[in-house]
Amino acid sequence: MKSIDWTGEVLGRKEALLGDLAELLKIPSIKDTGTGEAGKPMGREIARALEFMLGLAEREQWRIQNLDGYAGYAEYGPAESADYIGVLCHLDVVPATGPWTSPPFEPEVRDGKMYARGAIDDKGPTMAAFYAMKIVKELGLPLKHRVRIIFGTDEEHTMSCMEHYRRVEKMPVAGFAPDAEFPIIHAEKGQINTRIVLQKSGVAGEQEGTAHGGVGLISFHSGSAANMVPEAAEAAVAGEPSLLTAIAGQFNDYCAGNRLKGAAVLQDGALVLSLQGKAAHGMEPQLGVNAGLELAHFLRNTDFQPDAKHFIACLDEYFYDDPAGRRIGIACEDEIMGPLTVNVGIMRYASSESSFACLNIRFPLVADELQHVETIRDKVGKHRFAMEPPVLKKPHHVAKDHPMIAALQAIYREETLLEPELLTTGGGTYASFLDNGVAFGALFPGKENVAHQTDEYIGIDDLLKATVIYARAIYELANLDI
Fold first, then answer.
1. CB contact at 8 A, 279 and 288
2. Does residue 306 come out as left (phi exceeding 0), alpha (psi in the -120 to 50 range) or beta?
3. CA distance 167 to 241
4. Which residues 6+ apart lie within 8 Å of 119 measured at CB?
5. Which residues pair with residue 40 across a beta bridge?
6. Segment (H or E) for 299
7. Burial code of 464-478, b = ≥16 C-beta within 10 A, e = fewer?
């Protein structure tokens, strides 16, 4: 077989790739079960994104299947082959909060980058994989195994899409998720995802009013996704005007002293405190500034009603300035995966509604996750919080001598002239659903990781290079003896 100019093949399809990606990025595919229905469990917009990708695959005359709206796939290759290679992508995105330079669902190219929510996580890499398989098909290359691009719809929350896929379909013999970093991530931390809910006293005087110290917490709001470090927080406080004025002055001093952006505004007889932090992915909470925890830390000595005091005290005592979980007693680390991390992504308090916090904990191989759950349950119980049944995800690890890893390392080395070292991550990808699954790009070493952040983007040259790598990976893995 003559040598293939993989880069030339990708460049010849550049405009088509970017056009299809722009259309996909226009769909605000944020999970919304309020608009869900039969066949659209994650909501109307995610269903629209899935239908869009399956429509593109139908255009290519690939075998397609919509699996009850939880997931779908596009398959190419010999239908009679017993096993298949999986490329596991996701179409859902996190909410687009914060001040964007351009609207997050109106993709815009600036300085060689395409900006939009989902550009790098994970719609850009998904379209790269799609065009990679399109190139393999259009070149008429022989394949030993079938190849499926699997489109998930709930990766940013509980991954129920892949649980459903695993129930109704045979799993790939091997594969990769283009949903992380290059070179190759062969180990992923486990996760504990749970919600702790304040058990209110039921006594009106403890939930409402300003009987304690003359001030009362009306509401507290921070975060919109458990796996994001919240970049904004707001609390409303009621009380005597002189007390509110004093609190406003203290808050302004607190923000100035800690180099935080905040505002204290008297509004309809209440004091509204707002604070800006810095967003980051929940797998790396140490890279962000958790606005909710900063605001709780400021309010820790305010003499609120008992329920509110318990809410604030729990956040401050166990989670403030401690992404490693030391204060709550679950800190641990190992040589392969590094330290455990804790992210408090959503915080809500309201006197007349449910009050809670969402925890996203990522742990290494050495961790005892069941003991960690019991430790957390015991600690937060001291502040009247009850833990809801957690969703647990085991750590994932593929041995470095697996033949798939050797093949991907060779491809990466030849296309980038860089060493394909093996990495680990605190992030969770679909690769962990496969015995022989790794995360493979699409973020290149040294490049800014803007997943889950304002002004998310993907570099167009990086997108094209990833497409080259994925085309080779699809072809070579589909012909590997596994």
1. yes
2. alpha
3. 59
4. 25, 107, 456, 457, 458
5. 37
6. helix 291-299
7. bbbbbbbbbbbbebb
Please, is 321 exposed, middle or buried when counting C-beta atoms within 10 Å of its C-beta (0-12, 13-18, 19+)? exposed
Which of 298, 317, 310, 293 has the alpha carbon at shortest distance from 249? 298
Catalytically active residues, by annotation: 92, 155
Amino acid sitting at position 250: Q
Virtual torsion, Cα 421, 422, 424, 425, nearest 10 deg:
60
Give yes or no for a contact between 120 and 451, defined as CB atoms under 8 angstroms apart: yes
Q: Alpha-carbon distance 379 to 357, whole Å?
A: 14
DSSP β-bridge partners for residue 177: 439
CA atoms within 13 A on the CB side of 120: 27
Strands (E), 91-202: 108-110, 113-115, 146-152, 174-177, 180-181, 184-188, 190-198
The DSSP line for 197-234 is EE-----HHHHSSSTTTTEEEEEEEE-S-TTEE--EEE
Match 């957390």 to its residue by tokens: 376
| Residue 314 near residue 328, CB atoms below 8 Å | no
CA 388 – CA 52 distance, rounded (Å): 36
Q: Tell me the two tokens of residue 78.
A: 């010999």
pTM: 0.74
3-state helix, strand, coil in the chain (%, to 5): 35, 30, 40
> What CA–CA distance (Å, rounded) separates 469 from 131?
11
The label of the residue with tokens 């304690």 reads: 212
Residue located via tokens 């896929």 = 165
Ranges of residues in the chain with a pLDDT under 70 are 1-2, 202-213
Q: Which residue, among 302, 299, 236, has the nearest Cα to 269 in the 3D structure?
A: 236
C-alpha 52, offset from chain centre: 22
CB atoms under 10 Å from CB of 53, counted, come to: 24
List pLDDT tens digits, range 164-212.
999 999 999 999 999 999 999 999 999 999 999 999 886 554 444 454 5
Residue 171 backbone zone (phi > 0: left; psi -120 to 50: alpha; other: beta): beta
Q: For the segment 34-84, what is each residue's pLDDT rounded down to a tens digit?
A: 999 999 999 999 999 999 999 999 999 999 999 999 999 999 999 999 999
